[in-house]
UniProtKB/TrEMBL annotation:
Its cofactor is pyridoxal 5'-phosphate. The lineage of its organism: Bacteria, Candidatus Desantisiibacteriota. This is Diaminopimelate decarboxylase. Pyridoxal 5'-phosphate binds at G238, E274, P275, G276, R277, Y373. The keyword Lyase applies. Residues 29-371 form the Orn/DAP/Arg decarboxylase 2 C-terminal domain. GO terms for molecular function: diaminopimelate decarboxylase activity; pyridoxal phosphate binding. The modification N6-(pyridoxal phosphate)lysine is found at K60. Belongs to the Orn/Lys/Arg decarboxylase class-II family. LysA subfamily. Residues 38-281 form the Orn/DAP/Arg decarboxylase 2 N-terminal domain. It comes from the Bacteria. Substrate binds at R277, R313, Y317, E345, Y373. PROSITE patterns: ODR_DC_2_2. GO terms for biological process: lysine biosynthetic process via diaminopimelate.
Length: 413
């Protein structure tokens, strides 16, 4: 069942009246459905049943401790990209033996922290990084498990900013991958555990995932000639969701079925996936209040109290988010309007020239599918305190992160 739906004309998150939450915590705020997070995880886990696998939640999508803890309890590991995320993962109770560490710019301090926390492995993105991990592991008298992150360079057909293939800074160019594996083999403190290939984000077709696994398997098999026997194949994240009314999310059951077939004769591999958006995006919404309406040069603007500082995806990627009224109107008159925030930037918008029922002053709106890359990418630009985060379970809701105060804005200055 959808986590967000109307009952008697009011938008609910599970069984909680979002309007009531708004009255309690003020606007803007994020609201999440506990059940939706869990359903997403279970759906993916079930789709992968039959292939040995670990789901490492890409916590950069939403690393609130309560959300993170929820996934950890369901059995998720974590895909982290910084020492800060490692710190949060451990605090949230994620099993270190299920943590993988990606990112092109790991620092010495972060590598040491990860080794001493006994994470599952590093996803290595360059030779100098590999050398540094080898050196640090040597000094710590440890063996560092790594996966070489390979960039197969094919186009996953997604937005340029979230396309991590050819021409991006990520991974090791496919033409050099074998050489890097061979090099890693002679490093004394490196255990070559696997191969990693994340191809991009918000991919809604099954094709790119299948192609990624095929290429990974073929490389993994060819490494046997070098005496390298991988244990893990990590295909990264990127499972896409439906942001628009008429879109469909990626079919994880199809992806799971094809993976199972492809892996039938390669049972030694444990599959790792690193979904972020798929697990968290549709579980959350950003709730905001209409402050004013105005017209300029014939264009209608609805000005709300949330802005790009709270949810930057529309500004950054031109991303589409559905915008729903918390209370439905009887006979909505759809007009072309732009929904914009209070931040002093022209790029501060949630919708541009969208045909929708025009909300009135004081009305509440929900910007949907904001559970991933929403709060996580928020900022204090324009000295705006970050919004509160609320988690719903059934008809109850609790604040899982307090709204920042003005005092928070000057902390440390
Ligand atoms: C961002 C990222 C993910 C998660 O991407 P989603 O599209 O949110 O699933 C996984 N792995 C790596 C390496 C990433 O950079």
């Amino acid at each position: 069942m959808e986590a967000f739906r109307y009952m008697n004309g009011k938008l609910r998150c599970e069984n909680a009246d979002i309007g009531k939450a708004a009255a309690a915590v003020g606007t803007p705020f994020y609201i999440y459905s506990r059940r939706a997070f869990a359903d997403n995880f279970r759906r993916l886990d079930k789709a992968l049943a039959g292939s040995r696998h670990i789901i490492c939640y890409a916590c950069k999508a939403n690393s609130n401790l309560s959300v993170f803890r929820l996934f950890a309890r369901l059995g998720a590991g974590a895909d982290i990209v910084s020492g800060g995320e490692l710190y949060k993962a451990l605090k949230a109770g994620v099993d270190p033996g299920k943590i993988v560490f990606a990112g092109v710019g790991k620092t010495e301090d972060e590598i040491r922290f990860a080794l001493s926390s006994r994470i599952l492995m590093f996803n290595v993105e360059s030779v100098p990084e590999l050398n540094l991990i080898n050196d640090i592991a040597g000094k710590m008298r440890r063996k560092a498990a790594v996966a070489v992150r390979v960039n197969f360079g094919f186009d996953p057909h997604t937005h340029g900013y979230i396309n991590t293939s050819r021409g991006s800074k990520f991974g090791i160019d496919m033409s050099m991958a074998r050489g890097v594996f061979a090099y890693a083999k002679v490093l004394r403190n490196i255990d070559i555990a696997g191969l990693h290939s994340h191809i991009g984000s918000q991919i809604t077709q099954t094709g790119p995932f299948v192609r990624n696994l095929r290429m990974a398997l073929s490389l993994a098999e060819s490494l046997k000639e070098l005496g390298i026997h991988l244990r893990f194949i990590n295909l990264g994240g990127g499972l896409g969701i439906a942001y628009r009314e008429k879109e469909s999310p990626v079919s994880v059951s199809s992806v799971g079925n094809i993976f199972r077939k492809l892996l039938k004769n390669s049972r030694r591999y444990t599959l790792i996936l690193e979904p972020g958006r798929f697990l968290s995006a549709n579980a959350g919404a950003l709730v905001t209040k209409v402050l004013y309406a105005k017209e300029s040069f014939g264009k209608k603007f609805v000005i709300v109290d949330a802005g790009m500082t709270d949810l930057i995806r529309p500004s950054l990627y031109g991303a589409y988010h559905r915008i729903l009224p918390l209370t439905t109107v009887r006979s909505p008159l759809a007009t072309v309007v732009s929904v914009v925030g209070p931040v002093c930037e022209t790029g501060d918008f949630f919708a541009l020239d969208r045909k929708m029922p025009v909300p009135g002053q004081g009305d509440l709106l929900a910007v949907m599918d904001a559970g991933a890359y929403g709060f996580e990418m928020s900022s204090n630009y324009n000295s705006r305190p970050r919004p509160a985060q609320v988690l719903v379970s059934g008809s109850r809701f609790s604040v899982i992160r307090k709204r920042e105060t003005r005092a928070d804005l000057v902390r440390g200055e």
